[in-house]
Amino acid sequence: MRTDRTSAADAPSLEGDETHALFNRELAAYRKIVGENLMFHREVYGLLHDVLSREMPRPFKFLDIACGDAVASAAALKGTSIDRYYGLDLSARSLQLATEALKALPCPVELRCCDFVGALADWAEPVDVVWIGMSLHHLQPEGKIGLIEDVHDALSRSGIFLIWEPTLLEGESRDEWLDRFSACRAAFASVTDDEFAAMESHMRLADFPEPAETWMAMGHQAGFGKAEQLFMMPNRLGRVFKYWK
Ligand SMILES: C[S@@+](CC[C@H](N)C(=O)[O-])C[C@H]1O[C@@H](n2cnc3c(N)ncnc32)[C@H](O)[C@@H]1O
Hints:
alpha/beta, 9-stranded mixed β-sheet, globular, 10 helices, binds S-adenosylmethionine, Rossmann fold
């Protein structure tokens, strides 16, 4: 494995001590949630593995937008024909962890510590698969469509775009969706009250789910010819969609 550019270690620390500590606590809580499969990472990334194995038999370039610690992505990519991995994330600490997790891949790995919106607007290397897990929903509708347009431009002709994002049920409002998450408290038994409260307040501030039809319509608006839903989380809070040209 080659790490062409791992900005994680070089990134200037822009955060104050308190913000830094808060972020590390949130990262630790998120890793616990993933480890306990409370958000169904196992099913979602298992599905990603199956799609890549079935639809990408030839060497492919993979862009992981908001990769975080990339532990789940590394597992999904194991045994596929991956030829090059690009990972983008704002968090230097997550990228340090990603460097370790991705050592298992038999291909060059490039991690960039950056805002994915700017990075995609300037993206120059064609890729075959773009994946974004639980991160596009932080943007407002125009931002979501703009990002999907940039992904469309970055993809090769036979490339595919996959997203796993919070999704409203038919006729459901954002507040109702947030309340539905809060009602899952019992299922998050391994998370402390403080950790759960931090998740809830982050979501009330920064999560903007869309209905399934809107997620798919945004793909069409951004230039994709086809869009389909591949999966719904058993708690019905989020879904996986695939787009292609
Ligand atoms: C909920 S985690 C998702 C991690 C992983 N993709 C997954 O499926 O579990 C969200 C990640 O998005 C990153 N992130 C959020 N907004 C970002 C942005 N504008 N640019 C780059 N990374 C961002 C965070 O640092 C965090 O690692």
